[in-house]
Amino acid sequence: MRIVRSSTLMCILFVLSAVVMSQISPKPVKQRNKLAASIERGKKVYADQCLTCHQADGLGVQNMNPPLVKTKWVLGDKKQLIEIVLKGKKDGVEIDGDSYSNVMASHADLTDLQIADVLTYVRNSFGNKAKAITEAEVKTVRAKLK
Ligand code: HEC
User: Fold this and answer.
1) What is the average pLDDT value for the chain, to the nearest integer?
2) Backbone angles phi and psi of 61, in degrees to 5
3) Residue nearest to atom 18 of ligand 1 (CA)
4) Which residue among 44, 54, 57 is best mutated to probe the pocket of ligand 1, counting the most ligand atoms within 8 A of its Cβ?
5) pTM of the model
C-alpha cells in the first residue's frame, strides 16, 4: 500500500514538473520565432509599400523622403507611428538638420497585420531596435481614427 502511494506521488510530481518545465522553457523561443516571423513578413510589405520612397537601406532620399533610422517617430510612441501609416503625413519633418516636405500618402488599405509587421520590421532594421508592434495595437489605433 505504502509503495503504491509513494510511487503515485512520484508520478504526480513528475507530471507536475514536466508541466511546469514546459511552461517555463519553450515560451521565449516561441516569442523569438514570432518576432522573426513578423519581421520576415514585414520585410515584404516594406519592399512593396515603402521602399520606393524610404529606400532599401531606410535612409530615404535627401530633402525628399526622410530616413527611417533612429528617428523619434520610428523609435517613439507606437500610436503616433501607427497613425503615420494609417493617415499618411504631410506636415513636414526635420531630421539631422535636413527638412523633408514631400507628402506621404495614407496606407490604410493595408491590413492590421501588414501594418504591424512592416512597423516591426522597420523598428528592427536599419540599426533600429525597438519593441514589436502587434496587430491588436494597430486595430485599436484604427478604431479610434474612425
Ligand atoms: C510616396 C513616398 C512614400 C511612401 C511610399 C512611404 N513614405 Fe513614409 N514618408 C514619406 C515622406 C515624404 C515623409 C515625410 C512627410 C512629412 O511629414 O511631410 C514620410 C514620413 C514617414 C515617417 C516619419 C518620419 C521618419 O522619417 O521617421 C515614417 C515612420 C514613415 N514615413 C514610414 C513609412 C512606412 C512604414 C511606409 C510603408 C508602409 C512609408 N513610410 C511609405 C514618403 C513615403
Assistant:
1) 92
2) -130, 125
3) 92
4) 54
5) 0.85
Dist. CA 30–CA 112, nearest whole Å: 21
pLDDT tens track for 57-75: 999 999 999 999 999 999 9
Lookup result for grid cell 499618411: 88
CATH of domain 28-145: 1.10.760.10
The percentage of the chain sitting over the pLDDT mark of 70, rounded to a whole number, equals 92
| Cβ–ligand 1 contact at 52 (below 6 Å) | yes
Q: How many other C-beta atoms can be found within 10 angstroms of the C-beta atom of residue 113?
A: 16
The answer to whether residue 5 scores a pLDDT higher than 80 is no
pLDDT at 13 over 60: yes
The Å distance, Cα 54 to ligand 1 centre, comes to 7
Q: Is the Cα torsion angle 70, 72, 77, 80 positive or negative in sign?
A: negative
65 lines ligand 1 (CB under 6 A): yes
Q: Which residues contact 113 (CB under 8 A, 6 or more apart)?
A: 41, 135, 138
Indicate the top mutation candidate among 44, 50, 70 to test ligand 1's pocket, ranked by most ligand atoms within 8 A of CB: 50
